[in-house]
Amino acid sequence: MAGDARAALLDRCVTFLKQAGFGQLSLREIAAGAGTSHRMLIYHFGSREGLLAEVVRLVETEQRAALVSLVAGDDDPVAVSRQFWQRLADPALASAERLFFEIYAQALYDRSWTKSFRTSVIAAWTGPVEEMFVQLGFEPAEARRRARLGLAATRGLLLDLLITGDRDLLDAAAELFAQLITAPRID
């Protein structure tokens, strides 16, 4: 029961934050927007930071599901990459992505509330992306290397977009990267 209540509360918080933005809202403001009390948020998530880390985890889960869906619906890896980049580069996601990078930065300092984030921020993505490369015919070790490169490069492009807003150049860079990362291995 408690898990169901926690999940429902998290969903309400995510829904509110997607509408209100992820800015510098206090825990009380988030609670009011989600129709609960700040004490319930503390009970379920420990702190504002713990709640926001869980929000990011849920949004990341949605993004991974979207990637899996794109891969299942198209056998052209460059087209899949292009569609996924367009999804990530959607201005509507910018506030959630800024929160992602804020929590990423806090995880670098080993903040206790980022433990689950540190555990999943790389590992949760590499499996689905490695599988995509294996489906393209790459050996598992090569698929693993390409998955990590793809993850790092995509996050770098996204961070650049959030900082500079240079959409045309970064769309072109993402397109070039998709072509390079899916090209057959050259020895």
If you had to describe this structure to a student in words, what would you say it looks like?
It is a single chain. The chain contains ten helices and no strands. With 187 residues, the protein is mainly alpha-helical. It folds into two domains: 1-46, Arc Repressor Mutant, subunit A (Orthogonal Bundle); 53-182, Tetracycline Repressor, domain 2. The longest helix is centred in the first third of the chain and has 26 residues, at 48-73. The model has no long low-confidence stretch (mean pLDDT 90).
Labels describing this entry:
Tetracycline Repressor, domain 2, mainly alpha, 2 domains, Arc Repressor Mutant, subunit A, 10 helices, 187 residues, single chain
Q: What's this entry about, in short?
A:
The protein is about 80% helix and about 0% strand. It is an all-alpha fold and about 190 residues long. It starts with a helix and ends in a 5-residue tail after the last helix.
Specify the overall morphology: elongated
Helix/strand/pairing class, anyone?
mainly alpha
- Helical coverage, percent range: over 70%
Using the 3D structure, state the CATH architecture of the largest domain: Orthogonal Bundle
| Fourth CATH level, the homologous superfamily of the largest domain | Tetracycline Repressor, domain 2
Please count the helical segments: 10
Total beta strands: 0
Provide mean pLDDT, rounded.
90
Total separate domains? 2
Supply Rg: 18 Å
The CATH topology of the largest domain is Tetracycline Repressor, domain 2
**Between the first and last Cα atoms, what is the distance in angstroms?**
55 Å
Q: Profile the largest sheet.
A: none
Order of helices and strands: HHHHHHHHHH
User: In terms of per-residue confidence, which ranges show pLDDT below 50 for 5 or more consecutive residues?
Assistant: none
CATH C-level category of the largest domain: Mainly Alpha
Range of strand content: under 5%
